[in-house]
Design a protein that fits this description.
Elements (H helix, E strand, L loop, with lengths): L33 H14 L1 H13 L8 H35 L8 H15 L29
Helix pairs in contact: 1-3, 2-3, 3-4
Length: 156
């Protein structure tokens, strides 16, 4: 049975009753909400591609049991943390503008193309990363590069 404990009035710090085993490497969680993660998603996909592929391969070989792939999952988290920190160091203003726009526009990319373009430019200039959407048709402009899109905050 669970019991509610008010954390504000607690005199002892929270201790996880089910800590991970020592065989699982320790890693700090990202500590980001959904908007910054969505803003950085395509860059994380490109930057952490090898770690993501290792995790997905492990998960596939384990029959979907992610518990057997904790080490690979921790590597993905470390890689994502590294990129988020680099984004904050190099493109903080553009990164915040983009994820704040996503936060205010129901997490919709199409409503935030202007701050997205400035973030993409900064990421390319300072970190050498480009945003590419997997599965996009070859030879066509990526959706975020279209100058006058059909879908905007004001429909035509």
């Amino acid at each position: 049975m669970s019991v509610f404990h008010n954390s504000a009035s607690s005199s002892t710090p929270y201790k996880d009753p089910t800590p991970l085993p020592d065989s699982v490497p320790k890693v700090q969680e990202l500590g980001s909400t959904s908007a910054p993660l969505k803003s950085a998603a395509f860059f994380i996909g490109a930057y952490c591609k090898e770690f993501n592929e290792d995790f997905m391969l492990c998960k596939n070989e384990a029959g979907g049991d992610t518990g057997r792939c904790l080490k690979e999952g921790r590597r993905v988290t470390r890689c994502a943390t590294d990129l988020i920190n680099k984004m904050r160091e190099n493109c903080l203003e553009q990164f915040e503008a983009h994820w704040n726009c996503l936060e205010l526009n129901n997490q919709e990319y199409y409503a935030c193309r202007k701050p997205e373009r400035t973030l993409n430019k900064c990421m390319f200039e300072k970190l050498g990363l480009t945003k590419t959407i997997p599965g996009s048709p070859a030879g066509q402009k990526q959706i975020h590069e279209v100058e006058k899109p059909i879908y905007t905050t004001l429909q035509r």
